[in-house]
Amino acid sequence: MTQRILALHLGLIGLLFVLQFVLPPYHHDNIARIMVMAAYAMGYNLMFGYTGLLSLGHAMFFAAGMYGMGLSMQHAGFAAEAALAVGITAGFGLALGVGLLALRTTGVAFMIVTLMFAQALFLAILYFGPFTRGDEGFVIPLSARIFAGLRLSDPTIRYFAALALFALVLLAMLWLIRHPVGRVLIAIRENEERTRMLGYDTWRHKLFAVTASGTISGTAGAVYGLLFGYVGASFAEVPYSIFPLLWVLLGGAGTLVGPFIGTLFMFYLIDLASGVTDAYMLVVGVALLLLTLFAPRGIMGMLRERWLPWLP
Amino acid sequence: MAPRKILSASAGTTRRSMLKGIAAIGASTAATGFPGFTRFARAAGSDAPIRIGFQVHRTGIGATYGRWYERVTNAAARVINEMGGINGRPVEIVAEDDGTDPKRGAEVVGKLANQHRCDVAYGTLFSHVVIGSAPRAGELKIPYFVVSEGHHVASGMLNRYTLQPGITDVKSQVMAMAPFVAANLGRKVTMIFPDFAFGHNHRDFFSEAIAAQGGEVLARIAIPPTETSFTRYFAKIPRDTEVIYHVMVGPSVLTFVKEMGEFFGPSAPAIFGFIDSLEGVDLASPGLEFLEGSHFWEGMPRYEQPGDPDYVKFYREQVGLDANGASVDDPDDISANAHMFACWETLFTIKNGMERAGYRGPEDRAALIEAVEDIDIMPAGREHPQGPKVFNGLTHQAFGVQYISQVRNSRLEVQHVTAIKDGFYPDEVDYTKQPL
Lengths: 312, 436
What we know:
By secondary structure, chain A is mainly alpha-helical. Chain A is 76% helix and 3% strand. By secondary structure, chain B is an alpha/beta fold.
C-alpha cells in the first residue's frame, strides 16, 4: 500500500521533472505557474479537504506571503533569500492571528469571518498605497530575482524552483496526513464532536491546520512573486480566494493529488476555451456543472471511490 | 530632460491655431510620407503576415474599453493592410483576452509570444495588467506596446521592451490641465478622487501642478472604492472652494454626479473632471444634467467638432463613429474615444518602427526597439489623428496635446487645446541604458 502511494506521488514528481525537458516554451511556463498555484491549493486543501474548515478568504495568506516578500525587497533592500523568509513568516503570522480569532466561530460564520479578514487585508493594501503601490502593484526587478546565485527569471531554473516547492509541499502533506496529527484533522472533518469526546483537543488541531495551511499558501505567494516578478493587489481579491476552492473541488477535496489536477484542469479549460469562443467563462461554468453532477467528489475523489480506494 | 525634440506650441494656443498647425503637419505628411493605398509590395524573402498579438480586455472590469479598443485595432489593421501592410507584408491581429487580470495578462503575453508566434505584443490598457505583464515581456524579449496612459512606463518601473508611444501618461495629462484650470476656473481647488492608485496619481500630480500655477488644493477627499453614497463627502468641501476636481470612475459615477447636483443645487463651484469617469456613458443620461457647463479633459474629442481636419474625419469614419461619438450601428453604444485613438496611433507607430528597422522577424526585435526609440516627432495626420506628438525614446513615453471640453446641451465642445510642452516633466529613467 505504502509503496503504491509513494510510487504515485514520486511518479508525479518524476513526470513533472521529465516534462521540463520536453515541453514547448508556452506550456513549460504554464506548468511552472500551475505547480506554484497547486502548492497554494494544497495549502487550502489541508484546511478544507482534510480538516473540513471552509475558508472564503485564503487569498489573504497568499497575498501576505507575496507582499511580505515584495515589500521587504522594495523598501528594505532584502535579498531574495531573506525576502522569501519574510514572506513565509508573514503568511505564518497572519494565519496564526486569523486562526486565533476566526476559530472562535464555526460553519457559515467562519466562512464570513475569513472573507472579511481577506477584504480587510485587500483594502489595507489599497489604503497604504504609497507603501504598497495600491491596486497597481509593483515589479520585482530582474536583478533582484536571484536566489542562491540562481537567476529565477531563467525558464529552466524557474521551472525547477516551482517543482521544488510543489514536491516539498506534496511530500510534506503526504507525511502529515499519515501522521497521527493528520489523522486527527481527518477525524475532525468527519465528526468534530466525536473527536473531542475521544479526548483530542480539536481547537488546537484546527489552529494548527489554519496556521499550516496559511503558511503553505503564504509560501506559494512569496515564491510566485519571486519567480514571476510581480506583486499586486489583485492576488488579494475575492477571486483568488475562490480559485483554490474550485481547484480543490474539481481535483478532489481531501486527496493529495487533487489540487494539482484541479489547477491543471481549470487552467487549460480556460486557456483552450478562450481560443474557441469569447464566452469561455460559460464553457467553464458548464464544465463545472457537469463535474459537480457526475463527479461530485472531484476527479481524484471519483477515482478513489471507484477504482483506487488506497488513494490518500 | 524633456523629449529630445520639441514640437512647440505656446501655452496660450487656441483650438483654431492648433488645428491649423495640426492640419499643416498632416498635409505635409500626406504629401511626403504617407504611402497611399497601394497593395502589398512583396518584401524580399517573406510575404507571411506580421503577427501583432493583441492583449485585450474582453472580460473583467476593462471590458467596456476593451470592446472599443478591439474595434479601433481592427479598423487600423484594415487601413494598414489597404495601404500595403508593413514592409510589404500584411498585418494580422491575434487577439487574446486577459480578463483584465495581471496574472492572466502575463500568461497571455507568453501565449502570444510562444504559441501564436507573434512579432510583438500590444494593446494593454489597465495599469495593473500592464505592470503584471511587462516582466514577462522583458523576459521573452518581445516588444510590448501598451496603450494604458499609466505613468508606469515613464516612471522607470518596467523594462526596455515596454513602450507607450500612442498615448500620453496621466502625469503629463494632469500637469497640462493646471494652467487652464488656474486661469479660467479658479485657483482654490478641492479634489475628489477614488482611494486607489489612479486617484492617488491625480492627487499627487495635480497638487504639484496647480501649486506651480499659484493655486492650491484646499482639500483632498479620497473616496473608498466600495462606496455607493457620496453626500457625506460633499460636506467636507471647504466653502471657499472655487473648483471641484473629480476623477471618480466605475459604476457609481452616475450616483456621484446626481448626489453632487442635489447637494449644491444651482450654486456650485466650477467643476472640472476627467472623462475617464464617463467613457462609454451617454452624457444625456438622466442624472448627469448637473454636469452641464462643467469642463472635462478629453484625450481626443468624443463629439464631432466644427472644423475637424480631414484625418480626424477619416479616423472616425474608419472606426465607425457617429457625430456623437457612438457606434454608427447603435447610437446607444457610446465609445471610449478619449483613449481608444491610441490603439490606432500605436499600430501606426509599430508600422513606422518596423519600416525604419527593416523588420523581417523576431530576430529583429531589438532593432525594432531601437528604431522606435529613435522616433521623436509624430506629426498629426491619418497616422496620428489625435494630434501631433513627440516621443521620448529614453523614457519610452509619448507626449501630446490634450483637449479641454465643456458640456453644452449634453455634448462636449472643445474649448482649449493644450500645448505639448505643458505636459513635459523631467525624465525619470533612461531605458536605453538597459541591455537588449
